[in-house]
């Protein structure tokens, strides 16, 4: 049957493959054989099977009969043996029962006698116990009355003591509360002072740190400025050295050129403080004496002239005469001998309120403060 089913599935799978269908399981539930072909093909096989089945059945019936006879014989033999053993066991059982009954009766009689003795002893014990219990009860009643009296007395004492202790406890609690409050206040004051001390300490440390940082910053700035000044000084020294060499080489012409170049810078430095003034209020009460509004425009020339005069007084160098001596007319018609000229290049520093400017010139170091210009 299984082989037939496998063959049917194999043949049908060929047609199903064309449709893209796969047969997972195939069960044959019904077969139609209109021409009895299957029956015809199986008749020979069925006859052989029926023959073999008949022979097997006969052999089986024979074996069953033999086995039944043997079993009956063995059963009878076993029954006889079993009956014999049962009879022996029953006899032994009867003897054992008789012995056990005798022993049981003896033990029962002994137990009954012992029970009566024990019962009498228990009765006497119960009577004695009852008497003792009555005595104990009476004694307990007396003790109970005494105890009740003591309890009442103790209760009265306890009530008195309780009231006194309650008053004492209340006073103690009030004192403890006051003490606790004072301690809390003291601790709060101490904590507040400690916090203030810590705050002052922290502020002092912060101030110290800030000052240290400020000092370090100032030191760093100072060092940087010192290095810058040193570098600037070296550069200016080299420049001065080269200018001095040029002065030696070109003489008075170079000096005049430097003076001419320095004059605009000097005028600028003199006028620079005026640029920082937002508003100027002038009360002209001079009556035309030349010190009012009309004199504002002559401020710079006047200061410049005073500066040139100061240079002359300090160094003996007359810048005006030098400039006159180098004019075309002086060179053609006059020969001016200027004494006191030292071809050494000095610095004239004009210091204003906002900045410091260094001007190369022929003079000693001359500092003009901006405050002196007003």
What's the SSE pattern?
HHHHHHEE
Structural class: mainly alpha
- What percent of the residues sit in helical stretches (DSSP H or I)? over 70%
Report strand order across the widest sheet.
1-2
How many strands? 2
Summed over residues and divided by their number, the pLDDT gives a mean of: 73
| Shape summary | flat
- Count of alpha and pi helical runs: 6
Report the biggest beta sheet as strand number plus sense, adding barrel if it closes: 2 strands, antiparallel
User: What is the strand content?
Assistant: under 5%
What Rg, in angstroms, do the CA atoms define?
A: 74 Å
Cα separation of the termini = 138 Å
Catalogue the unreliable spans. 334-374
Characterise this structure:
This protein has 374 residues and is mostly helical. The protein has a domain at 251-275 and 297-374. Helices cover 76% and strands 3% of the residues. The chain is built from six helices and two strands. It has helices at residues 2-18, 37-250, 252-275, 299-315, 319-325, 328-333; strands at 346-351, 356-361. A hairpin with a 4-residue loop joins strand 1 (346-351) and strand 2. Helix 3 (252-275) crosses helix 4. The two termini are 138 Å apart. The model is unreliable at 334-374 (pLDDT under 50).
């Amino acid at each position: 049957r299984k082989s037939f089913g496998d063959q049917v599935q194999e043949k049908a799978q060929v047609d199903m493959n064309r449709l893209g269908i796969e047969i997972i399981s195939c069960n044959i539930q019904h077969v139609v054989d209109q021409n009895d072909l299957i029956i015809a093909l199986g008749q020979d096989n069925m006859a052989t099977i029926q023959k073999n089945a008949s022979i097997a059945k006969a052999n089986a019936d024979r074996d069953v009969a033999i086995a039944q006879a043997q079993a009956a014989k063995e059963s009878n033999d076993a029954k006889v043996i079993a009956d014999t053993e049962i009879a022996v066991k029953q006899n032994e059982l009867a003897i054992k029962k008789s012995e056990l009954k005798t022993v049981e009766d003896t033990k029962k009689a002994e137990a009954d006698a012992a029970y009566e003795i024990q019962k009498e002893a228990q009765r006497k014990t119960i009577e004695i116990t009852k008497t003792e219990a009555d005595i104990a009860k009476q004694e307990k009643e007396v003790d109970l009355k005494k105890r009740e009296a003591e309890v009442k007395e103790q209760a009265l004492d306890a009530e008195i003591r309780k009231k006194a202790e309650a008053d004492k406890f209340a006073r103690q609690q009030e004192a403890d509360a006051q003490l606790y409050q004072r301690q809390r206040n003291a601790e709060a004051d101490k904590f507040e002072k400690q916090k203030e001390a810590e705050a002052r300490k922290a502020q002092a440390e912060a101030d110290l740190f800030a000052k240290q940082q400020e000092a370090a910053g100032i030191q760093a700035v100072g060092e940087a400025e010192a290095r810058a000044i040193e570098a600037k000084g070296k550069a200016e020294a080299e420049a001065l050295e080269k200018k001095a060499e040029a002065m030696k080489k070109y003489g008075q012409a170079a000096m005049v050129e430097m003076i001419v170049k320095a004059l605009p810078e000097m005028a600028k430095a003199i006028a620079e403080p005026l640029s920082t003034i937002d508003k100027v209020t002038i009360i002209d009460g001079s009556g035309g004496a030349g010190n009012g509004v009309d004199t504002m425009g002559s401020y710079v020339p006047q200061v410049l002239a005073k500066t040139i005069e100061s240079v002359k007084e300090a160094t003996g160098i007359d810048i005006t005469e030098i400039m006159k001596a180098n004019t075309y007319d002086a060179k053609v018609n006059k020969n001016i001998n200027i004494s006191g000229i030292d071809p050494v290049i000095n610095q004239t520093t004009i210091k204003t309120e906002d900045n410091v400017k260094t001007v190369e010139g022929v003079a000693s170091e001359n500092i003009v403060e901006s405050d002196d210009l007003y």
